[in-house]
Amino acid sequence: MRTDPVNKVREITSGQGADVVIEAVGSPQTTEQAIQMAKKGGIVNIFGVADTKAFSQIEPFDICFRELTVVGTYAVTLDTFNRAAKLLASGRLGIDYLLTEELPLYEPEKGY
């Protein structure tokens, strides 16, 4: 059984949505979900690198009505990547609930 990430965020925030959402996958679907996860007045940071031909379906009215701030970030160095990997590995971020399934490296298509 798969968990709907937007519903999960709404559930753990008592229906409010997240103050800040960082989209780090780089797919149109996760970009759309990130916008849906943000609370009114929230910030959405699009960090994941999408294919140059990828398009997301977003509702500009929704962004305006909910007063969202949407920012893009494209700045990664080997040092920052390694620091982020160490932070994730330390377990201090408490993200286990985001991981719903483990897939073998030889079957990446099952993740989409």
From TrEMBL:
GO molecular function, one term: oxidoreductase activity
InterPro entries: ADH-like_C, NAD(P)-bd_dom_sf, Zn_alcohol_dh
Name of the protein this chain belongs to: Alcohol dehydrogenase-like C-terminal domain-containing protein
Keywords: Oxidoreductase
Transmembrane keyword on record: no
Gene3D superfamilies for the chain: Medium-chain alcohol dehydrogenases, catalytic domain, NAD(P)-binding Rossmann-like Domain
The keyword Ligase belongs to this UniProt entry's keyword annotation: no
Residue ranges constituting the Alcohol dehydrogenase-like C-terminal domain according to the UniProt record: 4-89
Pfam family, one: ADH_zinc_N
